[in-house]
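Contributing new complexes? Match this layout with adenosine-5'-triphosphate.
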Amino acid sequence: MPAPPRIAILSHHTGLYSTRRLLDAVAAAGAEPVLLQPEHCLLMLDDTAARLYYRSSLLAPCTAVIPRVGGPLTHLGSRLLRFFAGEGSCCLNSAESLELSRDKFASLQVLVAAGIAVPKTAYFTQMEQRDLAVSAVGTPLVHKLLSGSQGVGVSLAETDIAARGMLDTFLHLQHEAMVQRFLPGRHDFRMIVLFGEVIAAMRRDASAEDFRSNLHCGGRASALLDLPEDFAAIARLSAASLGLGFAGVDIMLAENQRPLVLEVNPVPSLEGIEGITGQDIAGTLVKALLQQALSPSLQPRL
Ligand SMILES: Nc1ncnc2c1ncn2[C@@H]1O[C@H](COP(=O)(O)OP(=O)(O)OP(=O)(O)O)[C@@H](O)[C@H]1O
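Output block (do not edit by hand):
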């Protein structure tokens, strides 16, 4: 009997809901789950060969790889993905797409170049550009760290004075700043894209205590059963523009109800969306990835 395909899951937090769901889904699909904590990996280059040691042992080839690395492990995760791609493993998201989508401003640049509308957003590095950025974007405005997730590093400045003070601090500490026009809707839409199809969607409403609608910030989610076709088209194009096989695309409405993409998450949590929709997203993902891996002629519809 041939050995079952091996599917690696790169995850630091092994007890996380998404990691556990994916491990179970890999086993349920008849494949062998291989849990890799990125920090226990050693990459070795020697002449023209590349090798990966996991906890001091040479790692056997993997059929496919699912990156579930958080923001702080983006660079390590992308180097591991580059190794796996070189080995011929089928990576759910590539090294390049992970790096790109983890940079909040660079990814918006790529979306805009693809014709996808985003909120008015300024990026700058020097104090001399601060006042122009504040007046061009207008207050209230949202300041964002260039990397961050679950709403961490996203803050609201209601007035020009507050915005200037906040920017002074961030320019001093981070040497760069990103500010975005505040959209007053208090809700956003998250669409999960898998190989060019929207497979699930939810609406998230901010609580009375916060402007952020992330579930970690007290937001409330509900399933989005009648997904507008323009939202789905924007989500598909956003994931494709960033080269992502799997992505969570966040959309908010402008004052004139135009859908604008806030960001595209390369490692969206499965917990909220599976709980809200009742869908087996982990199972769908693993089956689609195995199909990709085992039918090399089948190209993802990116
Ligand atoms: N320009 C904006 N106007 C109003 N609210 C915003 C704006 N940008 C972000 N928000 C709110 O803050 C939340 C977090 O913002 P964003 O998605 O950029 O950060 P994140 O930390 O990467 O979140 P996630 O982990 O969901 O990807 C959004 O879900 C939205 O509710």
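Reviewers usually confirm one structural detail per submission. For this one: The CA atoms of residues 96 and 220 lie 33 Å apart.
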